[in-house]
Amino acid sequence: MIRRYVIITGIAVLCSSLFTLKTMAQRVVSLEECVSSMRKGNIRAKNAQKNVQSAEEFRKYARSKYYPSLNLNAFHYEATDYLLRRELLSEEWSELIEELNQQYGLGLDTSIQAFKRGTSAGLSLLQPVYVGGRITNVNKLADLQVDAMKMVQDVDDDMLVMEAELMYFTLLKLHGKRRVLDASDVEVGSILKDARNLAAEGIVNSNDALNVELTQNQLQAQRVRLDNAIKLLRRALAKEMGVPNEDIDVDTVLTSKGIVPPQTLWMDSGMATDNRNESRLLDLNVQRTQLQTKIAKASYLPIVAVGGNFGVSRFLTKTNTRGMAYAVLAMPLSTFWSERHMVKRSKIEEQKALDERKDKRELLDLQVRDAYDNLSAAYKQVEIAKKSVGRAEENLRIKHEEYINGVCNMTTLLDAQRQKSTANDALTDATCDYHHAKTKYLIMTGRKELTY
Question: What pLDDT does residue 92 have?
Fold first, then answer.
C-alpha cells in the first residue's frame, strides 16, 4: 500500500513538473503586445515600409534632375591607312621622283598623309533652365507619392490592428466557451451525483443517470472540437505576429472593462470621413492627375538649356585643347498635334478622379454610419446577454430544487442547465463582438489611438 502511494505521488510530481515546464515555455500576450508584434513581424507591414522607402528613393532621384548633367567622353581610333592623303606636286614630277626613289632609294615623299590614329577626351556639362515645368511637376509628383505611400502604410496598419484585435478576441471567445464547458461539466457532475443518490433511494428512475452521462459525453465531444480550434487559432496568431515557432496564447480573462455606451464614442460621420486616411488618399489621387496633366502639357512647350564643353585631342603630332560654351533653345512643332491628345486624355483622367473621390467619400460616410449602428447593436446584445445569464442561473437553481423535491423530471433540469450554458456563451460572444465593433468604429473615425 505504501509502495502504491509512493508511485502515485511520484507520478503526480512528474506531471506537475511537466505542466510547469509547458507553462514556462508558453508565452501569454496582451492585445497591445499582439498588435505591436504584428506591426513588426507581419509581411504586409514590412512590405508597406519598403514601399515608403522606394517612394523616398524616387523622390531623391527626381531631385537630382535639378542639377546639371556632367558627362565624360573619350575616343581613340586606329586606321589601316591614312584618312587624309594629298599630292603636293604635279603628276609628271611625282612620277619622276618615284623613279628616283626606286633607282637610288632616296625615300622622297610627294604627298601629305595624316589621321591614321588619334585620341580625344572631353567633359560636357548641360544645365536645363526651362523644360516646360517637367522637372518641377515630377518632383511634386514624387513628393505626392511619398505622402501617398505613408498613408497607405497607415491604412494597412489599421487593417492589421483590426485583424489582430479580431484574432485576439476570437481566441478569447473560444477560451470563454471552454470555461463555460468546464462549468457545465461541474454542474452536470453535481446533477449526476444527485440523480444517483435519488435513484438509490428509489425516488427517481435510474434512467435519469444515463441521460446525465449522455450529456457529459456530449460536453466532452464539444471540448475536443473546441480545443482543436483553439490550437489552430493560436498557431495562426503566432504566424501573423512573425513568430510561427513560439507557443502563443492570450490572457483568457474576459471582463466587461472597456464596454461603454456607444453615445460616448459618437462622432459626426462627415468629420469622421475627413479624418480617414482613405479620404486623404482620394485627395492625393486628384492632385496626382492634375500634375500629370501639367506634365503632359509640357511636351509641347519650349526647352531652354545652357552648357559647356572642354576637350583635349591629339590627331597629328600636336595636342590641342578647346573649350566651348553654348545655349540651346528647342521648340517642338510636329509633336504639338499628337501630344495635345495626351493632354485631353489626362484631363479625362482628372475628371474621373474627381468623380471617384465624390463617390468613394459617400461610401466612406456610409461605412462610418454602419460601423456605429453595429456598435450600438453589439452594446445592446451585451446588455441582453447579461440579463439572460442572470435569469438562466435563477431558472437552473429553481429546477434543481424542484428535481430534488420530485416536482420536475431530469429532462427539464438538463434543459435548464443547457439554457444557462447557452446564455453564458451568448454573453461571451456579445462581449467579444462589442470589442471588435468598437475597434472598427474608432479606426473608421480616425481614432486608432483609443482602440486599446
Answer: 57
Cα–Cα–Cα angle for 272, 278, 279, nearest 5°?
60
Average pLDDT in the 340-366 region? 91
pLDDT reported for residue 137:
92
Q: How far separated are the first and last CA of the chain, in Å rounded?
A: 57
- HSE (side-chain half, CA atoms, 13 Å) at 409: 6
Rounded to two decimals, the pTM is 0.71
Three-class DSSP labels, 144-159: HHHHHHHHHHHHHHHH
The residues, ordered by sequence, that sit 6+ positions from 227 with a Cβ below 8 Å of its Cβ are 178
pLDDT of residue 247: 86
Long-range contacts of 261-270 (CB under 8 A, 24+ apart): 261/379, 262/372, 262/375, 262/376, 262/379, 262/441, 265/375, 265/438, 265/441, 265/442, 266/372, 267/368, 267/445, 267/447, 269/365, 269/368, 269/369, 269/372, 270/365
Q: Which of 180, 179, 65 is nearest to 133 (CA)?
A: 65
Residues 6 or more apart in contact with residue 223 via CB below 8 angstroms: 178, 181, 185
Q: pLDDT at position 143, please?
A: 94
The yes-or-no verdict on residue 83 having pLDDT over 80 is no
Handedness of CA 258, 259, 261, 262 (dihedral sign): positive
Grid cell digits, residue 138? 515630377
Q: What are phi and psi of 303, to 5 degrees?
A: -120, 130
Band of pLDDT at residue 332, cut at 50, 70 and 90: confident
| From 181-190, 374-383, 421-430, the region with the lowest mean pLDDT | 181-190
CB 181 within 8 A of CB 219: yes
List of residues 6+ apart from 153 with CB closer than 8 A = 48, 49, 51, 52
Mean pLDDT computed over every residue of the chain: 82
Q: What angle, rounded to 10 degrees, do the helices at 335-404 and 410-444 form? A: 150
Residue 167 contacts residue 404 (beta carbons within 8 Å): no
- φ/ψ of 251, rounded to 5, equals -65, 115
Q: In which residue are the cell numbers 552648357 written?
A: 307
The Cα-based distances of 3 to 7, 8, 11, 12, 111 in angstroms read: 6, 9, 12, 14, 126
15: pLDDT strictly greater than 50: no
Cα–Cα distance measured from residue 242 to residue 196, given in angstroms and rounded to the nearest whole number: 52
